Amino acid sequence: MRIEIEKGIAEGKMLAPPSKSMAHRLLICGAMTEKSRILGIEFSEDILATLDCLRALGARVETEGSAVTVGGLCPDRFPENAKLLCRESGSTMRFFIPLCLLAGKEINLYGSERLLSRPQKVYEDICLAEGHTFLRDGEKITLKGKLKSREYSVRGDISSQFVTGLMFALALSGGGKINILEKAESLSYIDLTASALRDFGIDVRVDGAVVSVGSAKGISGREIAVEGDYSNAAFFEALNVLGGDVEVLGLDSESLQGDRVYREIFKMENPQYDLSDCPDLAPIAFAVAAYRGGGYFSGTHRLKIKESDRAEAMRAELKKMGIEVKIEENSVTLGGSLTAPSEPIYGHNDHRIVMAMAILLTVTGGIIEGAEAAKKSLPDFFSRLQKLGINLKVESL
Q1: What is the rounded distance in angstroms from the CA atom of residue 322 to the CA atom of residue 363?
Q2: Max CA pair span of the chain
Q3: N or C terminus of the chain: which is more exposed, having fewer CB within 10 Å?
Q4: Catalytic residues
């Protein structure tokens, strides 16, 4: 999809999108009960992947409007040779791998080529140590084994998603403990997981680098709403840095979401910030820095294993707008003067690249190709922009 964005000033109020991170977590926790109702679901591609995987493992899933009723996830009833379609969702795949290893049955997880190339070494090492099957053939991951309810030691410097996946599996298998090795990054996401599990009555304690998880056995179902998403709200509040007047409503000021720090970054005239705990903010942080003439960001080494190599993708696109980006092992430096793009912007099949560059194009005007990638996390992103007064033309290719 090709979208032409006209130069304009955004104004208006909007309700924050629901948190995709919390939606994944609440849906999985709700599935562990007999019956729970999760309200305020945005059916993005990633959330649809999680719903598909719950169904594939035998959970009951019913949708009505923006509500999802879910329950009945039980390893004893996982189908043999279940086929889980993870689409392009890294969270879905990493959350479900340890769940699939609770049944002792062969289960296959499928996804895009990019998703299947992303690191899974934490799980591979566990399977190797315990004698479980973990096979990758470029098309799918094949699993077979039965994780024990015990104490695990895992690296925390690759992705917090591995810790979250194990937390879910331990809860469903009777409880256990996780020791996080190396320097743990994105710890706020582990706090989100702990919060979701506690919401469903599961005892969880996070003491520094040690996570203790109680059993989900006997927990009661409940009705709970997904909180507003700071991660996606950042794109719209960035419009205020660019001269707009946008108010995003429905964000919890006491939220545990690490991405809430975008407001701190946006206040900086020449942003300098460590993104270790909030790597998903990198594209929009780079865009804001480009508008302000420069910035420096550390903690960026994991950007290369996202939906795209995000630092390289932003360098390629910002260069079209007069901004130079220097990428080092764990830092990114931006400088230059923003100009209208010399050619169409490319989305790199990455929702956050598309949304960050679309926001920047409201300053200069321009065309973005591959804009459909925004559906991965926020299907109505461009309609939200239009409601804020940004004119755009959509062309399906």
Answers
A1: 13
A2: 60
A3: C
A4: 280
Distance CA 314, CA 316 (A): 5
- pLDDT at residue 156, rounded to an integer: 86
On average, the pLDDT of the chain sits at 96
3-state secondary structure 300-325: CHHHHHCCCCHHHHHHHHHHCCCEEE
Instruction: Give the residue from 157, 195, 235 showing the smallest Cα distance to 21.
Output: 195
Burial call 74-85: b when 16+ CB within 10 Å, e when fewer: bbeebeeebebb
The tokens describing 37, both together, are 């109702």
| Interatomic CA distance for residues 159 and 171, integer angstroms | 20
**Distances in whole angstroms, Cα of residue 161 to Cα of each of 223, 257, 278, 279:** 25, 14, 13, 13
Strands annotated E in 65-111: 67-71, 82-85, 107-110
The candidate with the shortest Cα–Cα distance to 339, out of 3, 4, 7, 2, is: 7
Query: Is 223 in contact with 37 (CB distance < 8 Å)?
Result: yes
Token pair of 394 as six digits: 């959509």
Pair of tokens at residue 103: 């049944």
**Is the distance from CB of 96 to CB of 109 less than 8 angstroms?**
yes
Tokens of 332: 């990114």
CB 136 within 8 A of CB 120: yes
Amino acid at 179: N
Provide the β-strand partners of residue 83: 108
Q: Tokens 């000033």 — which residue? A: 9
CA distance 122 to 141: 14
Q: Residue 15 has what pLDDT? A: 97
pLDDT tier at 397 (50, 70, 90 boundaries)?
Answer: low
- Work out the pLDDT band at 186, boundaries 50, 70, 90: confident
What's the pLDDT score for residue 166?
A: 97
Mean pLDDT to the nearest integer, 350-354: 97
Q: Is 244 helix (H, G, I), strand (E, B) or coil?
A: coil
Residue 122 phi, psi dihedral angles, 5° rounding: -55, -45
Q: Which residue is associated with the tokens 């109702």? A: 37
Return d(Cα 277, Cα 258) in angstroms, integer: 7
- Which backbone phi and psi does 206 adopt, to 5 degrees? -115, 110
Where helices occur in 174-299 by DSSP H, the ranges are 187-199, 230-241, 262-266, 282-291
Q: CA-to-CA distance for 392 and 31, rounded, in angstroms?
A: 40
Task: At 260, list the tokens.
Answer: 């809430």
